[in-house]
Amino acid sequence: MTRFYSFLKNTAYKGGAGTGVFVLILISLEIFFLDFNLLLNNLVVNYTPKIIYSSFLLSETFLGLVPPEIFIAWASKLETPWVSLFVLATLSYIGGILAYFMGTRLFMIPSIKNQIENKIQKHIINLRKWGGIFVFVGAVSPVPHSIVSLASGLIKYDFKSYLLWSLFRYMRFVIYALVIFGIF
Fold first, then answer.
1. What per-residue confidence (pLDDT) applies to 173?
2. Angle, CA 101 vertex, CA 100 and CA 104 arms, to 5°
């Protein structure tokens, strides 16, 4: 009736497919075109951590255009990779919060408010009801966390619940780091 399970299934399929495609692209690039170790070493040598962290925060705030896995791989090349990973995860969490508040401000624009209230109201009800799982999926999957955060702000999902569910972002970073640190 609420279509929650179909929503969850579709999200899981899209997240799994996105992860699979991303992994295949990385493997193909590594085999045929790029030497990622050389590329990451150049990033460490040529750019200060402040620049990398600032770029990451911008990416995590505005649509998550650069996959966090690239930054996790960058952290693996530093002297203290786990400390750098914690900084990255915290910046990702903060970027999500900033995106959430951008969503609340976007809702104040009359044309966007009208679109949300009139066109997708039935979906908003489900998202508010099941928003924790929506935020969880955005925190742990390849779905850009900033887009989920922005949407959470747009639909006025409870901020405290958003903060709690977004903590799973740290878990994602640790799991991905265990894999990426082993590879690079």
1. 95
2. 95
- Helix segments in the chain, DSSP class H: 4-32, 36-46, 49-61, 68-76, 81-106, 110-119, 121-129, 131-140, 145-154, 159-166, 168-183
d(CA 33, CA 47): 23
Q: What is the CA radius of gyration of the chain?
A: 18
Q: Which tokens hold the place of 32?
A: 């045929």
In 3D, which of 134, 138, 140, 141 has the Cα closest to residue 158?
A: 134
Question: What stretches in the chain show pLDDT beneath 50?
Answer: none
Domain-by-domain residue ranges, the chain? 36-183
Query: Per-residue pLDDT tens for 15-36?
Result: 667 667 766 776 676 677 766 6
How far apart (Å, rounded) are the C-alpha atoms in residues 104 and 157?
10
Taking the complete model, does pTM exceed 0.90, yes or no?
Answer: no
Of 78, 93, 80, nearest in space to 47 by CA:
78
